[in-house]
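Feature request, filed as a ticket because there's no other form

It would be nice if the structure record came with a short human-readable summary line next to the C-alpha cells. Right now we just get the raw output. Example of a typical job, pasted below so the devs can see what we mean:
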Amino acid sequence: MDLITQGLLGATMAQSGARQQETRIATGIGFLAGIAADADILIQSENDPLLNIEFHRHFTHSLFFVPLGALIVALLLWPFLRKRLPFARLYLFTFLGYCLSGVLDAFTSYGTHLLWPLSDERVALSIISVLDPAFTLILLIAGVMAYKKYSHKAARIGLLLAAVYLSFGWMQLQRAETVAESLIAERRQQAEQLLVKPTLANLLLWRSIYEFEGKLYVDAIRIGLFSEPRIYPGESIEKFVLERDLSTLPVSSVLAQDIARFSHFSAGLLAVRPEQPNVLIDVRYSNLPTTLAPLWGIEINPEQPDQHAKYRLYRDASDATREKFITLLLGGHLLD
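Raw output as currently delivered:
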C-alpha cells in the first residue's frame, strides 16, 4: 500500500508492544520501520527499465527477510537512540513495525514476493486497494490516540478494527467473485483464469478479469452494502501469446526475457494495445473497471530483440473519466 499507510501500521504495531513511557518513541521507530521495506523502490537501472517493477515488493517484503530488515533499521537508528533505549527494545519496535509490511502489501492485487526465496510467486489476495482512505484513517486515529494518551490499548483497538476492515474486504471479494462466476455462466463460458480485484480507494466497486478461449474479458461489479449487486459489462481483447504473436522472436533474446518478466509481473494477463501494436498492456489495471485503457505497459521493438523493452505509464486524470468512475461507484447509469 501507500507509504503513509505502511508507516501508520508500523507505528501502531510498535505502540501495541510499548510500555507507557515508551509509547511516543515507539511511534516514530515503528513508522520508520513500517516504510523501510519500500526502500526497494530505489532499485533502478537506466539500462533495464523493468528492473524497478521486478524488484519492488520483492525480497524486502518477504516474511523471511523481516528479522534482517528490522535489524538493519535498528542499527541505523541506534546511534541516535542509544541513550534513550536499550538495543533490545529498539529492535523489538523495529521488528513490530517492519513485520507486517509485506503482509499488508500481499492483501492488495499488485503482487508481493511474500515467501521469497522459497517461492517466486507474487502473492496478491486482492481484498483491499493499494490506496484505501478508510483503512488509513482507522490506523491514523488509533496511532494519534495512542501517542497522545501514552496508551498501547488504543493502538491495539485500532489494529483490531483494521483487521475487521480487511475481513470486510475479504467478504466483499467473495461476493464479487460469486457475481463474476454467475455472469460467466450466463454467457455460457468457462473461465480459464479469473481475477476479481477492488478498484481504487473503495471496497464497493470491483473489476473482474477472466480468460476464455484466448480472450480476456473485463467487467465492473458493484457490491453495495444494502443493495443488490450491479454488473457493468465491459470490453474484451485477445490475450497476448508470445509463441503465437511473436513466433520469430528468439526465446533467449533480451526482449523475449523482458516480455516474460512483464508477464510474470502481470499474472499472465497481457494484451496488445489496439491503438499501439508495439505496446503490451497489463490488463489487470485500467483507468475505468469496464475498459482496457491501461495504467501501464511495455513498449517493444521485435526488430531489435537485443534491446530492453521500455516501461510506460498511461494515466488518465480527465474529468470525464473521473465522473464515469464516480457514477460506477455510486451504482448509477452510464450514458453512452
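Something like this underneath would help us a lot:
The longest strand covers residues 230-238.
The radius of gyration is 22 Å.
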